[in-house]
Amino acid sequence: MVDSSVNTLLLSMRGIDKSFPGVRALRQVDLDLRRGEVLALLGENGAGKSTLIKVLGGAHLPDAGSISIEGDRTNITSPAEALRAGIAVIYQEFTLVPTLSARENIFLGQERTTASFVRRREERREANELFERLGVPVDPEMLCRDLTVAQQQIVEISKALWLDARIMVMDEPSATLTPKEIDRLFDVIRELQAAEIGVIFISHRLDEIFNIADRVTILRDGGHVMTRNIGELTRDQLIEAMVGRKLKNEFPVRDVERGNRRLVVRGLTRGENVRDVSLTVHRGEILGITGLVGAGRTEMARLIFGADHRDAGVIELDGRTLRIRNPRDAIRAGICLLTEDRKSQGLLLRQSSRHNFGLPNLGSFSSTGFLKQTAERAMFAGYIDKLGIKIPHQDQPAGLLSGGNQQKVVLAKWLARNCEVVIFDEPTRGIDVGAKYEFYVLMNDLASQGKAIIMISSELSEVLGMSDRILVMHEGRVTGEIIDVQHATQEQIMQLAVQ
Questions:
Q1: Which residues pair with 287 in a beta bridge?
Q2: Which of 97, 252, 287, 416 gives 20 to 30 Å between its CA and that of 132?
Q3: Which of 307, 321, 310 is nearest to 263 (CA)?
Q4: Any residues with CB less than 8 A from the CB of 113 and at least 6 apart, and which?
């Protein structure tokens, strides 16, 4: 944590306004960042966080307001000007060139040259010095497409350091990292603090906020709600400030009696990724599956759904053996999968939300080769109301919806197929705390209807809060089962996850 004696104001944003056609994204927002501190920027999807960061990073011009760095008013009209002012924004989707090496990405546009020749040895030495400073070994000559996500992140941070950034913004930096990589990231952030670099940290994972942040600024509906020292707030107070209402519990209570076995999987195998996995899910049950990244959780889900070919294994639904060769077979049998990456695998972002809903349900809306748009619209309208999808109109492109509403569109298209087994792979990744609660309620409703639910999640609090039983995976195998979830701990899960 930052030394309380360090109070030098590094960044001051005052009265920031920003509107888009039909939407006022920011309303008189203030933000302060001190030298060497980590400021968490929180809020629900649509609260204005991304817009504020894009104003700071020069991607958006504010309609009103001012930005000052170390007391000097700064006019930031482009990303290049933001970099010159010492501001680096590391987005969740990295801006690295995958076909260039780590070294080439760091010095891109700022190459060390002599007579038009790049001084590769000098660049390599300086890149290694940056990596050593951050305490993470990276091969400077390895192509960025071959680096792990954590290593790519280090390259982004090194690039910012090379450009002498004084202010670093990290947008959901831990979203795809393993617990060990997250710990390493936090070590790197503390190194940045020691160098008096101010860090703005955006995350939906509240455990991380209490771990790394010094202060927290909360936005809601485009306006500034509060800025407080993190030590002055409880988890419940943080949630209430973000959503604007009290949530009695972070996870809704569900009392559903477990029914008969619905989905039975025996000996599911695919190479080294999934090895002899067996599981059972009952009517009205939520089976949580967790483990470290690379444990084989997603690969197992894809085998059940028929997205990948299995080497061995039997899948049964309601006592009937299924022959699943592809996703079409799984869908027809009543099994659906909400993928981990909804943007690339679950939705066509440029297509309308209605078209996304209708794609797997064309048989219900077509006759003699013609689409019955009236029927499609009517059914989608029913799910918009049933699931509480916040959408201005059905033809809104899916890519313009918030993460929570995108996830609801994916769920709606599968519910319209009358799926009886619903597999959720990281269902709340990138979704704010208020939308998470709504999604948890939907999952409970599905279970109460007798559906069998598999929930794959890396968030241990979510697994403990939502599951009736928990399976833990490690290196493609199931290494443990937790039946008494009420009395289970995160430490117990981690012990099984690293066996």
A1: 454, 469
A2: 97
A3: 321
A4: 119
